Amino acid sequence: MVSNRTADSVIIPQGHIRVVGNIIKDSSGQNVTLKGFCLSNGVYTEATAPPATTYILTTDDYQTIQNNGANVVRFYIQYSWLNNTANFFTYMDKQLAKMATSNLKAVLSLHYFGVAGSGGGFYNGGSGQPNIPELKAFWKKVSDRYSTNNVVAGYDLLNEPYCSSTFDEITLYSYYTDMIAEIRNNNDNHIIFISDPVNKYDNPSAGHFLSGAFKRLSDDNLVYQFHWYKPIKFTHQTVYDNPYFQLGANYPYAEATETYTGGWYTNSVKVGNTAGNWVTVTSDWLDVDNFIYSNSNLSITDKMGVSILVGNANGQILIDNIRVERAINIANAPVNVTVTNSTFDIPKRYNIHTTTADNHPANWYLVADTDGNGAGVAAEHPAGTLENGWLKFDPSGIFWGTNSWATWKTTWWDGYQNYLDYTYGNSYKYRIIMDVNSSLSAGREVYAAFEFYRLTGQTVQNKNYMNTAITNYYVNWANANNVPLYCGEWGVADPSQGIGRITSFPGAPAQQVNWINDMADILNTKGMHWTYHDYKDFSDLGFGVYDTHNNAEIIHALQNAF
Asked: What is the pTM of this model?
């Protein structure tokens, strides 16, 4: 691609740009591939525009963006900012003028609907969310101001809309159609960007979705947008206050299905009432080779994990500092085997925000095993929280059956396969040590044990997986409909750059760099337009490339992507 910067950079688009078939062209007829950064602008916390000085981007920021090889920014806007139209446009005009000095264009993205930290996704037309008259009025105001502005590349109507049975995709596209008509009736010929429902890719067969990646609309100046963060438990691992994500996830990311094959419980860690005091308890040594050999259900290929079990108990239980030791000869000094987030204070320390109740702290999952008569847990889950860096278990809401257990596992749920690193055939012995503070009634116990699982299937989310998925779902649809495709967000959080700065975090940033290299190659090979999330994060979760703690390796990888 020829460029007025360097041989491998994107063309700086001249004048007004528009869609011609599946290509974007500038006013001189040059083909343009939009590549750049997302700018978050404090939309998640700032109730008014202009936002706090911290979030305002300078001329130097835009020059840094352009120096990477970018020609566009996706500029996040909060819905409430237009409540004070004059202030918003004064702010926006200044930002567009700064972009122009670096030959950048802006995709204006209606990104967030909440105010100052409240929920901000677009889920339906009620419950405090903007309805279609309000959305049309929003874009009418923007169009009135910028219909002839050549710095504006176009309008991104709704960020990550969420469809459901109460707001289905047919309704979403009726919203899109009405907003597009409002803009076109204003003699505004800017490109319009429309997004697929954020929850559709993972559940395309749900009844509230249309078939296909998008619905092809009649307007010929549209770009169809998707976002890509898979494997999301890796890319979003710093957002671990949400139980779906995994601090410590790796790339490539492997998710497996498994079946339980057996467990070692007899001589595991057991402890009763500690009278509110912390005690350290240690199990006997488990000879894994002999244990597998003597159990017909087990296989040398089975995986081993740690579980914490409570049966028919009441009273609060606090657990911390779970560790596994391995030794060939127990007379020699044992070595530690990694148990993911076993101290529990790492996630607590890593997040400066107030800890709230969470049934899946760290990478442990709480399951309730019912007996043969179907008795078990009456409540959805007992209360499990990360409190003061401990794993907390309160079984007061449980109805116990005759053979029921509540179990914290490092394995099992939705890809949380955090198996121990063990090898059969080396005469290794293993033991569990943990700290416990409990107030159990007499005769009740909590204990940690080794459990074994057999993998029955595995999906590895690597470059080939992502390339196949993006191609089959999005690219093939775009090619069949002869329309341009835009990856409006793709990005990865680096835990070594997030809150707490865990500089010794395994795999960071090398794995983040590998993911960026793979994604950039996929997007560029397919000739897609894209913007990376994000230039500066401001939430301190490790997404921002040019935050004060910017990472040279990730910056270099992105420079190569352009």
From this structure: 0.84
